[in-house]
Write a structure and sequence with these properties.
By secondary structure, the protein is an alpha/beta fold. It has two domains: about 250 residues, Aldehyde Dehydrogenase, Chain A, domain 1 (3-Layer(aba) Sandwich), CATH 3.40.605.10; about 190 residues, Aldehyde Dehydrogenase, Chain A, domain 2 (3-Layer(aba) Sandwich). The protein has 15 helices and 20 strands. A seven-stranded mixed β-sheet has the order 12-13-14-11-10-16-17, sandwiched between helices. It has a six-stranded mixed β-sheet with strand order 7-6-5-8-9-19, with helices on both faces. It has a three-stranded antiparallel β-sheet with strand order 3-4-20, with no helix packed on it. Strand 6, helix 6 and strand 7 form a beta-alpha-beta unit. Helix 2 runs antiparallel to helix 4, helix 3 crosses helix 4 and helix 9 crosses helix 10. The longest helix is centred in the N-terminal third of the chain and has 25 residues.
């Protein structure tokens, strides 16, 4: 059973029950053209608005999100299985994002005067135009707004092509923009097939493209964007190392590792997927980690006490289960879980591997679900080598009391983010993105505002 799409509809299936809860007809070519025309017309209106007015509308949007938080959080939970407490947190985080950029975004767009020989110059940040965003299902609202809000404050418009299984969330977000009185065309939703995405990328009204998704999707979107000579930002997969050295505060490290691995039922691109533990403490760390994982509440995602819900899609659970079985056949030790949960719904048992090596599936591939792999490192240098031995480079974590050593290791880690004594997170104050097959380009902070800007030089009186 899948809930990706049919030939004519995007289909949403409640992963907790297996019941179909929504189907959304794919839009016609004429409907797509109409949406692109609105986005192009909306751009001319939106970019002309003073940034202070754009900021005020973001503040209004934050309030609309809070006013509709329960409805939106429930839709997230029903469509992709996120435990309701985490879904509510997602909406609040989005409201805070809007408020932060409303306050700080205008300064990021200020002209930068520069003295040059023979005259004066300044750098201005001009919006590019309508941005096509191809977004995933794991954070149905946050993933969208994380890219949209910085682009919008800069004066761009946004055309969202969301994942087929969370179209209900997409349309609730569209309604929120309408309730906040954004001008028509500033935020558009298109429900199209992959062919429709290709059409949009090639359309001259689309100025740039952003994707959060798989490596395979990134290769396809990146190639099409390049063929159209359009900038793109790709935030792709990750197999993040979580390094724990002998001198770490073990209790804090275990707590962070459990959260970092199992939040959102393990369906997070930047997450603690490879737990690389120095050999002096690996036995104690493993015991504590398994005990803590065993205590996590698995069940109805609408229950407030649930921490792990169902996986979002049935086909992805099958894929994860195959990766687990492959890792076991390769010689890993299974300490907990290891299979699909019995009964209805798309649940997978919280799983812990030990004795994982760099030749095993769970080390080399991204496991997008509630599975943790514990790898033993001889020392800090070996831990660093293991961490970098990956085609991915999204984020990494180091737990140690020796902060100076952690800083030295951070300098050598091949990841877009390094977290010392804290698990991976995203925050508008700092940039987010990866290297290697985790993609390129940056979201959030001032980088996110300027990613889709024309950094225009204005030179005065050059003689």
């Amino acid at each position: 059973m899948t809930n990706i799409s049919s030939l004519t509809h995007a289909i949403s299936i409640n992963p907790a029950t297996g019941e179909q809860i929504g189907h959304y007809p794919f839009e016609s070519e004429s409907a797509l053209q109409t949406a692109l025309a609105r986005a192009a017309a909306g751009f001319r209106v939106w970019r002309a608005k003073p940034v202070a007015q754009r900021s005020q509308l973001l503040i209004t949007l934050a309030q609309v999100l809070r006013d509709n938080a329960e409805k939106m959080a429930t839709m997230i939970t029903l469509e992709m299985g996120k435990p309701i407490a985490q879904a509510r947190g997602e909406i609040e985080k989005c409201a805070q994002l809007c408020e932060w950029y409303a306050e700080h975004g205008p300064a990021m767009l200020s002209a930068e005067p520069t003295l040059v020989e023979g005259g004066k110059a300044r750098i201005e940040y001009r919006p590019l135009g309508p941005i096509l965003a191809v977004m995933p299902w794991n954070f149905p609202i946050w993933q969208v707004l994380r890219g949209a809000v910085p682009a919008l404050i800069a004066g761009n418009t946004y055309v969202l092509k969301h994942a087929p299984n969370v179209m209900g969330s997409a349309y609730l977000l569209l309604e929120a923009f309408k309730q906040a009185d954004f001008p028509e065309g500033v935020f558009e939703v298109i429900n199209v097939t992959p062919d429709g995405v290709s059409t949009a990328i090639a359309d001259p009204r689309i100025a740039a493209v952003t994707l959060t998704g798989s490596v395979r999707a990134g290769m396809a979107i990146g190639a099409q964007s390049g063929a159209a000579l359009k900038k793109c930002v790709l935030e792709l997969g990750g197999s993040d190392p979580f390094i724990v050295l002998n001198d770490a505060d073990l209790n804090e490290a275990v707590k962070a590792a459990v959260i970092g691995r199992y939040q959102n039922t393990g369906q997070v691109c930047a997450a603690a997927k490879r737990l690389i533990v120095e050999q002096g403490i690996v036995e104690e760390f493993t015991r504590k980690f398994v005990e803590a994982t065993r205590q996590l509440v698995v069940g109805d995602p609408l229950a407030a006490t649930t921490y792990i819900g169902p996986m979002a899609r049935f086909d992805l659970r099958d894929e994860l289960d195959q990766q687990v079985r492959d890792t076991l056949e390769e010689g890993a030790t299974l300490l907990l879980g290891g299979g699909k949960a019995e009964g209805p719904g798309n649940f997978y048992q919280p799983t812990v591997f030990a004795d994982v090596t760099d030749q095993m599936t769970s080390f080399k591939q991204e496991l997008f679900g509630p599975v943790a792999s514990i790898i033993t490192a001889r020392d800090a240098d070996h831990a660093l080598a293991l961490a970098n031995d990956s085609e991915f480079g999204l984020a990494s974590t180091i737990y140690t009391r020796n902060v100076e050593l952690a800083e030295q290791m951070a300098d050598q880690l091949e990841t877009g983010g390094v977290f010392i004594n804290g698990y991976c997170a995203s925050d508008p104050r700092v940039t987010f993105g990866g290297v290697k097959k985790s993609g390129f380009g940056r979201e959030l902070s001032h980088f996110g505002v300027r990613e889709f800007c024309n950094a225009q030089t204005v030179w005065l009186d050059r003689r």
